[in-house]
Amino acid sequence: MNxxxxxxxxxxxxxGVSPLLIENIPSNFFRSSVIIKSNIEKAxxxxxxxxxxxxxxxxxxxxxxxxxxxxxxxxxxxxxEIALEEQTxxxxxxxYKKISTFELPKNCLVIVTCSDLSANKVNEEVYSLLAQI
Length: 133
Description:
Blueprint: H1 3-15, E1 20-23, E2 33-37, H2 42-46, E3 48-50, E4 53-55, H3 58-67, E5 72-77, H4 91-96, E6 98-99, E7 102-103, E8 108-114, H5 124-128, E9 131-132
Parallel strand pairs: 1-8, 1-9, 2-5, 5-8
Antiparallel strand pairs: 3-4, 6-7
């Protein structure tokens, strides 16, 4: 990653305004992040019922814990590796910074990684919600 892209990334991370799309960067590059694979099952992404209570997903609980001490990032890893129509399961996170009834922490940045943007393998609607670095 060249210095210009690195500076731009730093500015976006500090502002935390828009979800980011970053090509060819390992997801473990982001300290204090929670990483979810793009092929995560919908039930695992959205949460589940225990008796009559709707419970948050495991990754969400981890995100809340990490955000108590530091700004954190939710990294959706390699979105281009799943079908275009399946990518839409992340729209609620990208557009509203929430999943089901659970709000993401205010100090959480959403980052989407991909390994190849040149092949148009990111859903148009998903892509429209992301700032590309």
